[in-house]
Design goal:
Chain B: One of its GO terms (cellular component) is membrane. The structure holds two protein chains of two kinds. Chain A is an alpha+beta fold. Helix content of chain A is about 40%, strand content about 10%. Chain A has seven helices and five strands, in the order ααααβααββββα. Chain A has a five-stranded mixed β-sheet, covered by helices on one side. In chain A, strand 2 and strand 3 form a beta hairpin. Chain A is elongated. By secondary structure, chain B is of the alpha/beta class. Chain B folds into five domains: about 120 residues, Ubiquitin-like (UB roll) (Roll), CATH 3.10.20.740; about 140 residues, 2-Layer Sandwich (Alpha-Beta Plaits), CATH 3.30.70.20; about 260 residues, 3-Layer(aba) Sandwich (Rossmann fold); about 200 residues, 3-Layer(aba) Sandwich (Dimethylsulfoxide Reductase, domain 2); about 130 residues, Barwin-like endoglucanases. Chain B has 30 helices and 37 strands. In chain B, strands 14-13-28-27-26-15-16 form a seven-stranded mixed β-sheet, with helices on both faces. A six-stranded mixed β-sheet of chain B has the order 33-35-34-37-32-36. The longest helix of chain B is centred in the middle third of the chain and has 19 residues. Chain B is globular, with a radius of gyration of 29 Å. Classes of the chains: A alpha+beta, B alpha/beta. At the A-B interface, helix 4 of A face strand 7, strand 19 and strand 20 of B.
Chain lengths: ~170, ~950
């Protein structure tokens, strides 16, 4: 399992460009209910939702700036700045807590020397809390980019981090 | 919040016809299906505690205070979101509920500052009231040791209200008011849970956000979070007077909330049928001009227009005026003097001015500023339908399925009606917009026109003919309607005309700049709708074919059976508060009150009997005639009531030359306006807060204007007119303005049933109001037309003489902006200037690029008539080849550029089409320099000399 950490693909995001966003947006249907899909798409493309995107989306979906901002800010998953090459989300929900995720979180923060929503430049990891990854039977869970790690222990956590760091030196 | 203690039912009324009976706290109540339990309880007189509910907003169910118990159901549902059901048994007050409500309230107060005694909402706070209702006595989580929002900052960016986030309970009422009532969607709840908060735009200040400052959020706020700055500064008002707004033709009903003689705030009244409890930035907030330091309160005279003004007594001013006018008449004849009535004055004030002209002046030289705005409406609708007024009430839009909006920009010029229209569009009605500019009704949050017919200025008639041609050609005519209600002969004649190939969409597409298929689709949509309504503004009337276009729209509505029903009609959005009324009151040189010709002997006789003298049976001068005659020396004296012709009328050089030629110009106004530069007598007028009378709005609704304060000048305006009449030898006498209305009712069949008493009783009434329609007439032409059979008029398109040339390759069209009103005399003396400090020139990027123009550059705008400089705004709202500006600021001199062309029937000026050139410049125009020099002189050597 731990070898897999070497295989976690790094995030590769486009640099924010309003013109590119406008071009990409044309492929979508402007029905209001597509707003969330479009937000996910842009976060996947640019790594975050740039503030400049909001008026563009508002016009496209025939909404106000306020409405689009309301939707984005409601969801913790949408970021307002570009994350590191790895986004590490550690579960804080009941099952994982019961299986020791609080302790893991403390260790993780200490190891990376950052708090939630911060980025460790040395390791190129952004740390985020998450509330349930839908894998409670294998708690505690964490996710790096789109790769899930389950039944994580202090030992395995260290190895995971090592794996990520080593990959960077590759 | 407001002083207005109208009952708040918590949730909107259900329009369902089915009735449901249920029991609440042991009492039976019968309400329409779909009513909330909260509303049903309130109908019984039972108040259920609430914070997030109010009856002009849909139920939201977020505050969790309005919980009730329903027998046979588990839990405690929110009464605002739970609809009634037959035989339901509801308990609103039980021990269990009391405990729960107290607990919820305790949580609210645990994060709310306990500064009630020094809070601006003290005594007018729903949070405070609700805490009292639930019997909150202690807060166990007190001390604010935990996390809280008490340090949240205040946004003071809006000039009229502040947003104090520390007092916010996040009930969303402001957000929902902005969405549901105003339709701007400028606010949102940002983030979630403990972090959730109200955000204007993207965490912007209110001023920088999409907010249009209508104040609906301030009114909806149950705490002091959103509060008028005037209340913060001066405290809660103690009494309130219901009146009618003095801005646009919507005619909103307001409560003027006061402390003694001090106006504290204006709050729109729920009882107002024109506005339904809503208001805009002008009506609600921009009333400070009434006490502006530039207001003139004493009469003034000067023998030459180059002299300084000298303050005098009322008596001296009146005698001087009468003497001058009489001397002129002795020397130059009876017709050498005349007057202009104001569309901002009350019906009573206008009535006496036209009476003064017809009696004391002994001629018919009276006209009104409607000449320059909606005179074609009066002419065109009278000719085709038989009444010089719009056909519907405003509420009719709530039943329209398709709206055809032509040459009107309601979000700026008639904002409260625009909110109503937008609400209907959000419910699913469709809109077609015909306008050279991409206005907000084409595209704005939750509004998208099915078609934007961005026609070239000056081609309206070709457009409406193409619609009619399509409808005839594709056999979408409502034959039953036409056969039963319209004049057969005129229709056959018209049919032959409209079938001509030159009226086909394909023939006019290039001329209009709109493709033929879009025209056809739009025509089909209009014709096939169950209920289709036309709304229009000055973009229709202010053309050389303004009257033709009005008749063209009436033809179209008759052709498709869209007159005489709810949801349909031909609806002018009239500009000024009392432009309908000033026309109704006989302000035209050819018509006595009620649109009856001066040459009609019977009509004239009825007035002659009442007024005790014989009247001239010859029509008098229209405004343009007055100016022309003044320049030629035969017209020498003029009485102008509340109208600034030297700013608002076209071709200002010509207007100024005319005014300069007069021997005696009397200006009655609040301020020394542009026209007053050429005046010899200045008679200070009263603001709407001082008036006692009536205004008639665009839906023919007469609303009362009640005096909140005494006339600051010492005289009502009708008294000034009366005094001049007396001084000139005509015994005009009234003790009270209500007597003037009695006279109007006595002499005008359409107003026969109207009196101050009736208006005070009913709130407002739409004319005709007489024995046949004792409660007024919301919708005209029901069952048949006022003129008998509807008249189809030939509407041949004739292009305006004003054409682009290599020298003047662009077309200028003029319009309005939300924050300013007309010549700006009122609004630019308020804080509204933060939104619009100067008139700007909108230009398409392509045209700007060709001329090397960038945003903010100073541009010389030049026509064959004159030139003026304005700053540029590059805007994709424009179409290439067309530029746009407003005329709110005198210094802009927009009307220096406009031309002498006018409507063929009514002389309404062609403001909407002027061939111009735009060039980068580094200096202001010569006229603008003169303007500044005059101002300088006024402030230095020519100061007013006190009495």
């Amino acid at each position: 399992m731990l070898d897999i950490a070497h295989n976690v693909p790094k995030n590769h995001f486009e640099d924010w460009q309003l013109e590119l966003a406008a071009k990409l947006l044309k492929d979508f249907d402007s029905e209001e209910h597509n707003l969330l899909d479009v937000l996910h798409f842009f976060q996947g493309t640019f790594g975050y939702i740039d503030k400049e995107l909001i008026p563009l989306l508002a016009k496209f979906f025939n909404l106000s700036r306020a409405e689009v901002h309301g939707v984005i800010s409601f969801y913790h998953d949408f970021r307002d700045e570009k994350p590191a090459a790895y986004v590490l989300k550690i579960c804080q929900a009941e099952s994982c807590q019961a299986m020791g995720s609080n302790k893991l979180t403390t260790e993780l923060k200490a190891a990376l020397n950052i708090d939630f929503h911060e980025t460790s430049t040395a390791t190129d990891i952004t740390l985020e809390p998450v509330y349930c990854l839908g894998n409670c039977s294998c708690s505690p869970n964490l996710m790096i980019n789109s790769q899930m790690f389950s039944r994580v222990t202090s030992e395995s956590l260290t190895q995971i981090l090592q794996g990520l760091t080593e990959e960077q030196h590759d | 919040m407001s002083l207005d203690k109208d009952i708040d039912f918590g949730t909107p009324e259900s329009k369902n016809q089915v009735l449901v009976s249920l029991e609440i706290d042991g009492h039976q109540v019968i309400v329409p299906k779909g009513t909330s339990i909260m509303r049903a309880a309130k109908q019984l007189g039972t108040s259920i505690p609430k914070l997030c509910a109010t009856d002009n907003l849909e139920a939201f169910g977020s505050c969790r205070l309005c919980l009730v118990e329903i027998e046979g159901r588990r839990g405690m549902p929110a009464s605002c979101t739970t609809p009634v059901e037959a035989d339901m048994v509801v308990h609103t007050q039980t021990d269990k509920l009391a405990k729960l409500r107290k607990g919820v309230m305790e949580l609210y107060i645990s994060d709310h500052p306990l500064d009630c005694l020094t809070c601006s909402a003290n005594g007018d706070c729903e949070l405070q009231d609700t805490a009292g209702e639930v019997g909150l006595r202690e807060v166990r989580y007190g001390g604010y040791q935990g996390e809280n929002h008490l340090a949240a900052t205040t946004d003071n960016s809006n000039p009229y209200f502040s947003f104090d986030a520390s007092k916010c309970i996040v009930c969303s009422r402001c957000v929902r008011a902005c969405d549901e009532v105003q339709g701007t969607f400028a606010l949102t709840i940002s983030k979630r849970g403990f972090e959730s908060h109200v955000s204007a735009g993207i965490e912007e200040s209110f001023l920088a956000s999409e907010c249009v400052s209508c104040g609906a959020c301030v009114q909806a706020c149950p705490t002091a979070t959103l509060m008028e700055k005037s209340v913060i500064e001066q405290g809660i008002p103690e009494h309130s007077i219901e009146t009618t707004c003095a801005y646009c033709g919507v005619g909103c009903t307001f409560n003027v909330e006061m402390k003694g003689e001090q106006v504290i705030r204006m709050v729109p009244s729920k009882k107002g049928k024109a506005n339904d409890g809503h208001a805009c930035v002008k009506g609600r907030f921009a009333w400070g001009y009434a006490s502006h330091k530039e207001r003139i309160l004493k009469p003034m005279l000067r023998s030459s227009i180059d002299d300084p003004w000298q303050e005098v007594s009322w008596d001296e001013a009146i005698q001087f005026t009468a003497k001058r006018f009489q001397e002129i008449q002795q020397q130059y004849g009876r017709k050498a003097i005349g007057g202009i009535t104001s569309s901002r004055a009350t019906n009573e004030e206008v009535f006496v001015v036209q009476k003064l002209v017809r009696t004391a002046f002994k001629n018919n030289n009276v006209d009104t500023c409607a000449r320059v705005c909606h005179s074609p409406t009066g002419f065109g609708l009278n000719k085709t339908l038989g009444t010089s007024a719009g056909t519907q009430d405003f509420a009719s839009v709530e039943s329209a399925d398709v709206i055809l909006l032509i040459g009107a920009n309601p979000t700026d010029a008639h904002p409260v009606f625009a909110s109503r229209m937008k609400k209907r569009l959000r419910e699913g009605a469709q809109i077609i917009v015909a306008d050279p500019r991409r206005i907000d009704m084409v595209e704005s949050p939750h509004i998208k026109a099915v078609a934007h017919l961005a026609l070239r200025p000056g081609t309206n008639v070709a457009l409406i003919n193409a619609f009619a041609h399509t409808i005839v050609e594709e056999d979408l005519v409502d034959w039953d309607y036409v056969n039963q209600r319209c004049d057969k002969e005129l229709f056959e004649h018209w049919l032959a005309f409209i079938k001509q190939a030159n009226n086909a969409p394909e023939s006019v597409a290039t001329l209009l700049g709109v493709d033929a298929e879009t025209l056809r689709q739009s025509a089909r949509l209009y014709a096939e709708a169950e209920r289709a309504a036309i709304y229009y503004g000055l973009g229709v009337t202010e053309h050389s074919q303004g009257s033709t276009m009005v008749m063209g729209m009436a033809n179209l509505a008759m052709l498709t059976g869209n007159l005489g029903f709810n949801g349909c009609g031909v609806n002018p959005l009239r500009g000024q508060n009392n432009v309908q009324g000033s026309c109704d009151m006989g302000s035209f040189p050819h018509e006595l009150p009620g649109y009856r010709s001066v040459s009609d002997d019977l009509t004239r006789q009825s007035f002659e009997q009442d007024w005790g003298l014989s009247l001239d049976n010859e029509p008098g001068y229209r405004i343009p005639n007055m100016f022309n005659e003044a320049i030629s020396g035969t017209f020498r004296g003029m009485y102008i009531q509340g109208e600034d012709v030297a700013q608002s009328d076209p071709d200002i050089h010509h207007v100024e030359a005319a005014l300069r030629s007069l021997d005696c110009l009397v200006v009655q106004d609040l301020f020394l306006n542009e026209t007053a530069k050429y005046a010899h007598v200045f008679l200070p007028g009263t603001s709407f807060l001082e008036k006692n009378g009536t205004f008639t709005n665009a839906e023919r609704r007469l609303g009362r204007v009640r005096p909140a304060i005494k006339p600051r000048t010492g005289k009502h305006e009708w008294q000034i007119t009366m005094d001049i009449a007396q001084a000139m030898g005509y015994p005009m006498h009234y003790e009270h303005s209500s007597e003037i209305m009695q006279e109007i009712a006595r002499l005008t069949p359409t107003f026969a049933g109207i009196s101050f008493d009736k208006l005070d009783r009913e709130g407002s009434v739409q004319w005709p109001c007489n024995d046949e329609a004792p409660n007024g007439t919301p919708i005209m032409h029901v069952g048949g037309f006022v003129r008998g059979k509807g008249a189809f008029e030939i509407t041949e398109f004739v292009a305006t003489e004003e054409k682009v040339t290599p020298k003047f390759p662009l077309l200028l069209t003029t319009g309005r902006i939300l924050s300013q009103y007309n010549v700006g005399a009122q609004t630019r003396r308020t804080e509204n200037n933060v939104w619009h400090p100067e008139d700007i020139l909108e230009i398409h990027p392509h045209d700007a690029d060709e001329r090397g123009i960038k945003d903010g550059d100073l541009i010389m705008l030049k026509s064959r008539k004159g030139e003026t400089s304005l700053h540029a705004l590059i805007s994709e709202r424009m179409q290439p080849g067309v530029v746009y500006t407003t005329f709110h600021m005198p210094f802009s001199g927009a009307n220096i550029v406009t031309t002498e062309y006018s409507d063929w029937a009514t002389n309404c000026p062609e403001y909407k089409v002027t061939a111009v050139q735009c060039k980068l410049t580094d200096h202001i125009s010569e006229w603008q320099q003169h303007f500044l020099d005059y101002q300088e002189k006024q402030n230095t050597t020519n100061k007013v000399i006190p009495a």
